[in-house]
Amino acid sequence: MAKRKFLGITVLPEYIQSEGVAGVLDNLERIGANAVATSPYLMEEADQETGQREPPADADAGDVRLLDRPLFGKREVWVRTAPSFVPDRSLYRGLRYRPAEPTALTRSQGRILDDFIAAARKRNIKVYFQIQAAIPPGYRVQFGGPVDADRALLPNGAIPEKRLAKNGSLAGPQILGYEHALIRDIVQNYPDLTGIRYDWPEYPPYFLDSAFLDFSYHAEKAAERMGFNFKRMRRDAGALYDKIHGGLSDADLKPWAEDADGGRYRLLRLLSDYPGVGSWLRFKARLVEEMIAGFRRVMNQAGAERMELLPNAFPPPFTIFSGMDFTRVARFSTAISCKLYTMHWPMILRFYGDQILEANPGLSSRLLAKTLANLLDIADDGGLETVEDYAYPPPDTPHPVGAAAQARKIAQAQRDAGDTPVYVLAHGYGPLDDFRKRLETARDAGRHGYWVNRYAYLSDDKLEIIRQVGV
Question: Of the candidates 117, 212, 363, 451, which lies 20 to 30 Å from 90 by C-alpha distance?
């Protein structure tokens, strides 16, 4: 009998609180889901002064978003969080970062995740916890972040002015030490989990500056230990950064935008002109590999050898600058979840394009849009006309990306991962027809199955679409 393909839904704990354990699991069972990911925190309402917006605004580009499923009866709500468990303080002794303090919410509702795990297991639904790989305290993307001493830096030593991801340096001993302690704490408190899903175990390249990390003190020490020439990497990455910020002309863009080879020759010339850039990209891949290997080692040491390890990853070719090398990471992973967060791709192109245009007055927005669409491989038809045509899509607007481009990314990720399964991580945000098309692409592109992120954007109509599309 053929093994059933994977179908997982990300259901963050606020919806378990809002809809109840049975309510959520009934919905998952009805659509045929056999896996669910949640996180070890609880949520309650707050005011705008003390809380964070749900859904998150994604650096103000995503403030057009509203929740498809009402949370605590609302489609936009300000919230605060608390851990779902009482952390073991001894695990964090000597570390700069400490877990969030339990609150009255922890004491009154903390058992709900234990109940959820037990009930899901009875229904043969796998349960994973998603935690942040490099954002202490690690429970949720929007809550937390490193001190400046542990931030990733640009080649000139500056902290990027804009950021969406609050990741610290992946080479930071305090960041890694905290994450290892958190892993032990989770394994100790939730031994019946199927596995742990690590979010952003890379340098998420949402902004152009984020693609030029990491040249921090911690990275320098790691490079020396690994045998990389940090000075050359910093010099050449800095020279490329300077070229992009003030040294570009339309003549530079035309090969990328107009040549039949899609700029492949130009890419090889670029790497020969900036040899330290290639070393720097390999170095970032080594940092990510070491991080994931360390997570696996700590899980095993904590007695969780049977627990699965699933990194969440950007898709190729974003991975070149994020450091997520599927081939390296696959050796330590049960599977890899590859994100097709297609509402982010036009936002990223717009972020990159605006920064480059501002730094290079007179540069053609049309050529730059075509260049970036080709480099990021997000379109099947050449993409939109100008940089200014790209934006974070409102809830009722189809995502301006290509189905074939999405499939190419998953195919490349699976080739790199070899025998380690790659699960497509599709996103529920967007209008119904577009969601169905993207879900069908995820189903067809990923031969092992897919996740849908996240329950907050899955109306009852979208849940029915998942049931119809299937695996």
Answer: 117
At the top level of CATH, the class of 6-469 is: alpha beta
Q: How far is CA 12 from the centre of its chain?
A: 15
What residues does each domain of the chain span? 6-469
> Where does 91-162 show beta strands of DSSP type E?
126-132
- What does the pLDDT average to over 110-118? 97
Position 2 scores a pLDDT of 53
Report whether the peptide linkage leading into residue 55 is cis, meaning its omega lies within 30 degrees of zero: yes
What is the pLDDT, as a whole number, of residue 459?
Answer: 96
Q: Which helix (H) or strand (E) holds 215?
A: none
CA atoms within 13 A on the CB side of 2: 6
The answer to whether residues 192 and 86 touch, using CB atoms and an 8 Å cutoff, is no
The DSSP H or E segment spanning 10 is strand 6-10
- The sign of the CA dihedral 62, 335, 467, 25 is negative
| Strand arrangement of the beta sheet that strand 77-83 belongs to | 41-45, 77-83, 52-54
Asked whether 462 and 428 are in contact (CB, 8 A), the reply is: yes
* Distance (Å, whole) CA 48 – CA 50: 6
Q: Assess whether pLDDT exceeds 50 at residue 453.
A: yes
The mean per-residue pLDDT over the stretch 59-84 comes to: 83
